[in-house]
Amino acid sequence: MNSEQGIALEYELKGGDFEIAGEASSKIKRVLQQIGVRSDVIRRIAISSYEAEMNVIIHAWSGVLKARVFPDRTEIIVEDQGPGIADIDLAMQEGYSTAPDHIREMGFGAGMGLPNMVRCSDEFAINSVAGQGTRINIVIRHS
Amino acid sequence: MPEYFHSVRLMPDRCKGCVNCIKRCPTEAIRIRAGKAKITEARCIDCGECIRRCANRAKTAVTDSLEDLRSYKYNVALPAPSLYGQFPADVPANVVLCALTRLGFDEVFDVARGAEIVSDATREYLKRTDIKKPAISSACPAVVRLVQVKFPELIDNLIPLEAPVEVTARLVRGTIGKELGLRRREIGIWFITPCPAKMTAFRQPLGTQKSCVTGAIGISQIYGELLKAIATIPRDANCQRATARGVGWALSGGEVAGAEAVNSLVIDEIHNVSEVLEQVALGKINVDFIEALACSGGCIGGPLTVENRFVAEHRMKQRLAKMRAEDEAAGVKPAEYQADSSLTEYDRLSIEPRPIMRLDEDIFKAMYKVEQMENMLKKLPGLDCGSCGSPNCKALAEDIVQGTAVETDCIFKLRERVRDLAEEMVGLAGKLPPSLEEREEKKGE
């Protein structure tokens, strides 16, 4: 490792696989704790990676969650193959959700995923193509 | 790093160096070194899980004893509500309390009284709109320490209220000091405890400058004498017990019931607590109040209790039903929190995080170590057998990177090395000196 490369973490995600939901975010969180990032910053990173991870599991068919941990920041990139988001502005509104009823009954899909990611991150970018998939880039600075 | 006082200790002559305790420790604080368990002080939260797990009874809790009462002019016993669970419900609470005076205490004061006050204060606290939700109870000292070492981001969610025993001790110290004209150091206030973490909490309080409790005596330590004393106490002995609201704190769910918290979550057993707090940290749990207890079943499951926790739970439930009926008939009400008494939010200090995961003070070195650890982990067998003395392969990888273990501590890696060496030796054994060997080039000549 050198400080330019950072620590690269990568996790495969599968749509509908709730059994491993949250594992990728937990592993990222552990690495951040090991390198001694401030706990409130870790919390923001953990929440945004968790929400991103859950979005893939709830909505997409498959995807990958990548984290690059640098001394001064963490970057999270989530790419999925899935239905995409038809109206991103609408999806960014708190409480708006396209999650089916059976997912909502489980306590997921409350329409807070994207707003939470935005709230927790310093930089946030989203690209989506309907019928193909979504890509989210998040940067959270450590100080 | 400051020195930590810990109640949980090892008795080396009894330790066989097995892996039971290292595998169950929720903070991976134990390693086996030179055939004996060794507790890493900075990681220990005094939950007592290792005491419970050790088949050889090599783990113990350092508590005070009845001998220590001699150093004080006036001694007060503060029995934990869980003490009642050690006896059948037909042994009246006042008899249990009075029996303690036969063991050398001048006075007994029911800690459940403090629990009533904390219940009331918690109810008031939860009404506030400026607090972090979910609010997490700070009554269980092992849970508070778990938050400190594993979930520092949740420190602000801990309710800034003293535990019932501290509240009770403060009340007692105030009244007795005045009534008897005794100085602070002349009064011994002793918690009769189901739990080693409380002992640690008195020596090294979190959130408080100095504890009002002198020390702690384990329930199991005085149980025998107490049983004998109970037989000699008349049924109508005059010792005032608290109400069911406070006594109910002995069982998991007692705090929630006492505080009448509606949208709340009750978790017991330290590993369960850890799992749920992980979710709380991710913002997944939308409740107002979390009652979290390190012992299975709540305080009645404490490592220093005597009675089986399920039996104790049954007895407590019977006793509580009886108490409620009695209190209702007599019109007795639980004690309330007096907002001006500063009994609860007295001089609160902030609780400092005690991060145990961090690999190095220097972030660059720490990042390097993370990579080393990942690489090492890939090489290890992943069986988590514990034979190396670390609780699992991940912990061994960490210990290797931190320089406290080596790769061949893993018996499988050692076996691999031995095999490689053996193969090399066999290979070497087949080699002949040039004087005897028929060389290829010679053949060709």
Any overview of this molecule?
The complex is a heterodimer of chains A (143) and B (445). With 143 residues, chain A is of the alpha+beta class. Chain A has a single domain (7-141), classed as Heat Shock Protein 90. Helix content of chain A is 35%, strand content 29%. Chain A has helices spanning 23-35, 39-59, 88-91, 101-104, 113-120, and strands at residues 7-14, 62-69, 73-81, 123-129, 133-141. A 5-stranded antiparallel beta sheet of chain A has the order 1-2-3-5-4, with helices on one face. The model of chain A has no long low-confidence stretch (mean pLDDT 87). By secondary structure, chain B is an alpha/beta fold. Chain B folds into 3 domains: 8-61, Alpha-Beta Plaits; 66-341, Rossmann fold; 363-429, 3-methyladenine DNA Glycosylase II, Chain A, domain 3 (Orthogonal Bundle). Chain B has helices at 20-24, 49-53, 93-101, 111-127, 141-150, 164-180, 196-203, 219-232, 244-247, 254-259, 270-281, 309-330, 363-379, 393-401, 411-429, 440-444, and strands at 8-10, 30-33, 36-39, 59-61, 74-79, 107-108, 135-136, 187-193, 215-218, 264-268, 289-293. A 4-stranded parallel beta sheet of chain B has the order 6-5-8-9, with helices on both faces. A 3-stranded parallel beta sheet of chain B has the order 7-11-10, with helices on one face. Chain B is elongated. The mean pLDDT of chain B is 90. Chain A binds chain B through residues 1, 3, 6-7, 22, 25-26, 30-31, 33-37, 39-40, 42-43, 46-47, 50, 69, 71, 116, and chain B through 152-153, 278, 281-284, 353, 355, 357-361, 363-364, 366-371, 373.
